Every structure is written in C-alpha cells, then in structure tokens.
Amino acid sequence: MAESAACAISRTVEQSKDVDPAQFIEYYLSREHRDNPGTGCTIAALSADAARQSDDVKVTFAEGIESMLAALAPAGTSPGDNEWKQARANTIDMFAHALGALLLSRSCPNDSPLADEILDVCRTKMLEQLQAL
C-alpha cells in the first residue's frame, strides 16, 4: 500500500502546486470533489485506512502531507523564520479544515442537504479567513 499511496499522493500534490489558496478551497470543498473520491485527493480518500496500517504506510502519508503543505504554502518564506512558521501554521489549519469538512460531507449521502451544507458553510468560512490574512 505504501508504494501505491506514494504514487497517488504525488499526483494529488502535483495538481495542487501553484494553485491559489482560494482556488484550492473552492475546488476541494466542491460537490464535484466530494462526489468523486477516486479522482480526488488521495490523502482524503485513504487517510482513515492509513491510520490502521503499518508505520511504513504512515511514513508515506506523513511525507505526502508534508509535500502537500509545501505545495499549498505561500512562496517567499524560508524555513525556520517567524513568517514561515506562521505561513506553515495557516497552511496546516487550512488543509486540516478542508480535509475534515470533505470527510464529514462524504460521510453523508451525496444528495443530503447536510452534505452540501457542510461544504457550503466551511468553504464560506475558510474563504472569509483567507481574506482576513
């Protein structure tokens, strides 16, 4: 599972590079992404399974998460400085919120009003938070 997960995660990361944070949130918290887990974010699709796997698989996921954070992070900061630490914290917060919202929405039937409400509310709140940064 580790090798196939690494390959799939690298595709997800590549698709997320150079994407504006607002664009990322708009797509990540869309019905299209929610309703198509096979073509969406591998981390979202397999993280629950990875949690029950060996450390090799967990290391692969940790590396993939680091790569995803690097792809989503704003350019122009250097690891270790205060600006970088704040940008990393904001990126972790954004990705964790988006991932959690997607998973909650996917746990409901696709045509459920609650599934759509979760995406809509979280997308709106996250975009508002981005504007405040």
Describe the structure.
By secondary structure, this protein is mainly α. The protein has one domain (2-132): Orthogonal Bundle (Tetracycline Repressor, domain 2), CATH 1.10.357. It is built from seven helices and no strands. The protein has helices spanning 2-16, 21-28, 31-35, 42-50, 55-72, 82-106, 113-132.
List the topology elements:
Layout: H1 2-16, H2 21-28, H3 31-35, H4 42-50, H5 55-72, H6 82-106, H7 113-132
- Output mean pLDDT: 91
CATH topology category name: Tetracycline Repressor, domain 2
Amount of helix: over 70%
CATH architecture designation: Orthogonal Bundle
Order of helices and strands: HHHHHHH
Salient structural properties:
single chain; 133 residues; mainly alpha; Tetracycline Repressor, domain 2; 0% strand; globular; TetR family transcriptional regulator; Tet_transcr_reg_TetR-rel_C_sf
In summary, what is this structure?
The chain has helices at about 1-15, 20-30, 30-35, 40-50, 55-70, 80-105, 115-130. It is globular and about 45 Å long.
